[in-house]
Amino acid sequence: MDFRLTDDQIALQTGLRELLEGRFGPERLRAAVAGAGSGADDDGLPLWSELSDAGLFSLRKPERSGQREGGLGLGLAEAVLAFEEVGRALVPGPLVATELATVHASLPPHRAAGLCRRQPAGRGPLLVERLPALAVLLLPDTLTGEVRSLSPSALRARGRRGVDPLTPLWEVQGPVPDGEPLPGVDAGRLWAEGTLLTAALQVGLAGRAVATAVGYAKQREQFGQPIGAFQAVQHLCADMLARTEPARAAVRAAAVGADAGVPTAELSVEIAGAKLLADQAAVRGARDCLQVHGGMGFTWEADVHLLLKRAWVYEGSFARTPESAEVLAEGLSVAGLGHGAGHGVGHL
Amino acid sequence: MDLQDTPAEAEFRRGLRDWLGKVLPDVPSPPDPLDWPARRVHDTAWQRRLYDAGYAGVHWPREAGGQGATPAEYLIFLEETERAGAPYVGANFVGLLHAGPTIAAEGTPEQRRRWLPGILSGAEVWCQGFSEPGAGSDLAALRTRAVRDGDDYVVTGSKLWTSHAEVADWCELLVRTDATAPRHRGISWLVLPMDAPGVTVRPLRTLIGTTEFAELFLDEVRVPVANRVGAENDGWRVTMVTLSFERGTAFAGEVVACRRALAELAGLARRNGAWEDSGLRRSLGVLSARFGALWRLVQWNVSEAQGGGVPGPGASVFKLCFSEARQELYDLAAAVLGSGALVLADGADGADGADGAGDDWTAQRLQGLSYTIAAGTSQIQRNIVAQRVLGLPKPGRA
Questions:
Q1: A200, A318, B41, B382: which could join A83 in a potential S-S bond, CB 3.0 to 4.6 Å?
Q2: How many domains does chain B have?
Q3: Residues in domain Acyl-CoA dehydrogenase/oxidase N-terminal (chain B) (predicted)?
Q4: Which pLDDT belongs to residue B397?
């Protein structure tokens, strides 16, 4: 066992972080927000071609030397590390669906894909992110296990203002057409991978929330000292980290398990746990970050609101908390409990 | 990132499993928790078995009589023994996990020869005399005085929360040897023989109603200077050295135990119908995610320690999360038991008696109240995370 990152994994992580800091720093983020909703840039996906060229979407595609569309042949372990970085940088767009379509449906480079699953009743309207910018829409049916693909133009939809300014949404009107079957792709697996990659985005975002809150708490002074010297503020920040790091460990371990061929039942429980904890870490972390910023946190220009709004978007993407909690509960099997004695023994 | 056993680790796990499978059927069931002498016998007998089989002090260095196992192998030891339901370290806790490692790291060759073998074989039991009525979270405020008189220190003061004091042979004792020095620089680390004249042990009744801890009163107790480990007034540093022995494994066995207890609780909920309550069922699922992630965090911390680095994102993050998750487990147990949570076991129906009532979940819930207090309160852990991990300024030092 060695759960530390390998040198190659560290290189991947730092390389991507540096690329994103250079290309999608605070200025570019603000410019994207300012451009959003103006009508001019609604279809534009900032950074898409660069990320595609950097291999973000084709990390897990098998290598095929000499062929144009070969990937890097890496695993989910590398993919979650990369998605942590993209989540941290607040890069907008259908990142996860595009990765899945690149790996499983041969989506060509520089294109974007979407994904939608039929909504059970009582879950609100069926929304698709950036519909006009998509080349293809994946339709996983987790009941039959089948995945179908659909041309986005076949959907009737109307544009809505998304709560996250960088996640414009289209509300699907009427029934979703059947589309074409995508042979050889399992819907359950697709959904699980998408859930895990979304959890990785949340972990990255949660880490940014901690760093942003701590940075502000060190610099903002009240009562003659940095507010970060007050335990009330310190404990908020400590709790943010204490939610983020277990979630990070869970996300990475689930990815390692998936690459190592852990059985599906066990893996789905791990992924459900990873997503649930990552959602909590990101959503609560972003709220605490906003709280640490005080009145500034409530303003448009402080950027903190972008963290929270994006965390809400990811929380609603792929497996949501109630679904994950049910998977986890089901995983608490009654079999193989071993001895009854000895649990919870305390010591000083 | 690799979570699979190396060939050496797999071999260690296999050997340990085989051995546990052979010896555990012969291990007597645990004694009455109120019978301290019987508990000592039970716990030290298990330690003797480990010693004879070459599993004593798995994580201790070889030159100290241990097995020199890697942190990952020690984690396997904790995982497998807990999973198999082997006896808990119990009365050997302070000796094996604290006093012994301290002597191994800081003691003279003579001190190591004198005390380490007895700890490893289970012949001698240790207790800890650190906290005092006026020195809890702020341990460096301790006031128990040791005054040099010839070849002895004369020690006077009182200690609190001393578990196993009733049956201990030795006590690792922190005393103040220089009242004028800055607080952390006037402390020394002594080995106190518990049968020395002037030592009084008074059991302390906890809110569970049992006597888990004791108070220790020291009235001009003579302790040989030769029993001091490390230099005079260097006791604070000596104490901290021990922490490096944990190498990310603290509470690892307890995480395994909690995961098993949660599965048992889910089984109980399925049987008594509480499972139909979707809110409760999902809360059990969420807790399962937390324990699962905490196990991964342990693996991460151990991996970092194995590589010689700082244990992962910090032992404090783990301790903070685990203490709270552990308490939540027993709160959820109370929700599953319903009114049964108001009933304590009375021996009539035994721990495995009628579903719910008479089980020991409620006693565990009471015990659990200590988890956010013992070994560093959750508030202190948050201070440590904020100040040492996140680098926020110390209060009042603007």
A1: A200
A2: 3
A3: 9-122
A4: 56
**Partner-chain contact B370 A346, CB within 8 Å:** yes
- Considering the domain architecture, whether residues B164 and B230 belong to the same structural domain is answered as yes
- Domain containing residue B19: 7-123
Report the residue of chain B nearest A280, measured CA to CA: B286
Q: From the candidates B166, B246, B304, B328, give the one annotated as an active-site residue.
A: B246
Mean pLDDT over B239-249 rounds to 79
Q: Are residues B216 and B262 in the same domain?
A: no
A346 band by pLDDT with thresholds 50, 70 and 90: very low
Domains identified in chain A and CATH numbers: 187-331 (1.20.140.10)
Going A13 to A19 to A20 to A21, the CA torsion angle's sign is: positive
One domain, residues B333 and B215 = no
Angle at A139 between CA A136 and CA A143, to 5 degrees: 165
Give the end of a domain, one of B207, B234, B261.
B234
Residues across chain B? 398
- Hey, which residues 183-212 in chain B have their CB within 8 Å of chain A? none
Give the type of residue at A153: S
- Report how far residue B284's alpha carbon sits from residue B269's, in angstroms, rounded to the nearest whole number: 10
What is the average pLDDT across B107-117?
98
- Residue B75 forms part of a structural domain: yes
Q: What is the pLDDT of residues A156-201, one digit of tens each?
A: 999 999 999 999 999 999 889 999 999 999 999 999 999 999 999 9
Same domain, B52 and B94: yes
In chain A, the percentage of residues whose pLDDT exceeds 70 is 92
A113 φ/ψ angles, rounded to the nearest 5 degrees? -125, 160
User: Using one digit for the tens of pLDDT, what is the confidence trace for B199-240?
Assistant: 999 999 999 888 888 999 999 999 999 999 999 999 999 998
Residues A249 and A85: beta-carbon distance below 8 Å: no
Q: Is B72 on the interface with A (CB under 8 A)?
A: yes
Binary contact (A238, B390; C-beta < 8 A): yes
Q: Which of B123, B158, B185 is the last residue of a domain?
A: B123
CB pairs under 8 A between A and B: 249
User: Does residue B1 belong to any structural domain of this protein?
Assistant: no
Q: What is the pLDDT of residue B351?
A: 46
Q: Nearest 5 degrees, angle CA A217-CA A244-CA A300?
A: 50
Residue B283 belongs to domain with CATH number: 1.20.140.10
Decide if A291 touches B, using CB distance below 8 A: no
Co-location of B254 and B202 in the same domain: no
Maximum Cα–Cα distance for chain B, whole Å? 72
Residues of A in contact with B317 (CB under 8 A): 241-242, 245-246
Smallest Cβ–Cβ distance between A2 and the set B261, B306, B379 belongs to B306
The lowest-confidence range among A31-45, A81-95, A208-222 is A31-45
State whether B385 and A242 contact (CB < 8 Å). yes
Chain B residues with beta carbon closer than 8 angstroms to that of A326: 281-282, 285
Classify residue B309: in a domain, yes or no.
yes
* CB contacts, 8 Å: A247 with chain B: 293
**Quick one: B161 and B193 in the same domain?**
yes
For residue A232, pLDDT over 60 is answered with yes
B276 catalytically annotated: no
